[in-house]
Amino acid sequence: MANTVGLPISGTTISNPAVLAAQFAFQNGASSVSVIPVARIATSGSGIATTSDWNRTLATTVTGSDPTYLMNTVGVDVVLPLYGFVNTSGTSFGQIITYANGTVASGLNSYLNVQATNGNLQRAFVGVDGTFNQVTVGALQALASGFNSTRVSLVYPTVVNYNPGINVSTGVLNNTFNIPGYYAAAAVAGVFVGQSSVATPITNKVVNGFNTIPNQISEIDAATNYLPYGITTIRQKRDGNFWILHGLTTNTTSWLTSEISINAIGDALTKQIKNDLVNSQLIGGALTNVTSAAAIGVVQASLTAALANGLIQGYQNLSLAVYPATPTTVNITFQYAPTYPINYIQTTLSLNTQTGTVVSQNTQSNLVTY
Hints:
- By secondary structure, the chain is α/β, with parallel strands linked by helices.
- 29% of the residues lie in helices and 19% in strands.
- It contains 9 helices and 16 strands.
- The strands form 5 sheets. The chain has an 8-stranded mixed β-sheet with strand order 2-1-3-6-7-11-12-10, sandwiched between helices. It has a two-stranded antiparallel sheet with strand order 4-5. A two-stranded antiparallel sheet has the order 8-9.
């Protein structure tokens, strides 16, 4: 069962940001949410969390027993930092913090990479706080480029309008107000974990919970300045619903690295095979021809199950080897073909009475106005 982790931030206009983020995650499909506080050591527990406080929470080397370390939380699949990635002081008010060593962005990247090395396969959905000042597209592109990770998805817009509904104390309908973009990231994280399978992409899925998008960008702007840079973009269409144009990671090296579902399939398959091998209780037994055959049989059963449930479309070259240098380790290798998402449907129109000449052909796009 997938989890979304909220890392609350203090000093915002929202009295309890973690609760609101959890609401959006649940509303869009999350089944469980874990909230991890950010210990404000530098400010003695008061005021907004500093960069060093956040990096301490994202530390990958844990010393002692400290509940504020994210690594201490078990069963986390998706990390959602309630952090705006903006500088709200001085002349750089409202601009993206420079991606460099020591920032929260690089700290999050480092955390995810170390966790993956340790076998804890997690990914993050992040949003930017544009409520203080307009965040430029160049700043967003720079932040996405700074992450450059198959495990991080940067969500746009930076501001969404929220209607809290009726005040339960007064019975009066509350006014709508703008909230930071990391709440949109919370909703998208809920959509991601709420899919029946990670092979189902979040592209073209509805995001619930918001009223409007202030100063919404055009479809052409999204297709030109946001999606190619690995920015997962939400737009409000004619039906009033919020739609995810394309679920992306911030690694735009190729279409394989930029697709969330393709990368998530690898994680899911790894977890499934690992669990099946652990549950087989082969580890700790004698290494014989029988146990070797049993080990490769467990992996083949896992792959067959993944093929049956649509996680993958095929596999080949399943083999086992025991290397003389490490004779107590069994090495099993194979190649697999993931289930690819449908992102574009291209049609070709031809007026053909004699020549069959193509007179009109649309371009690839999933930005249809509903």
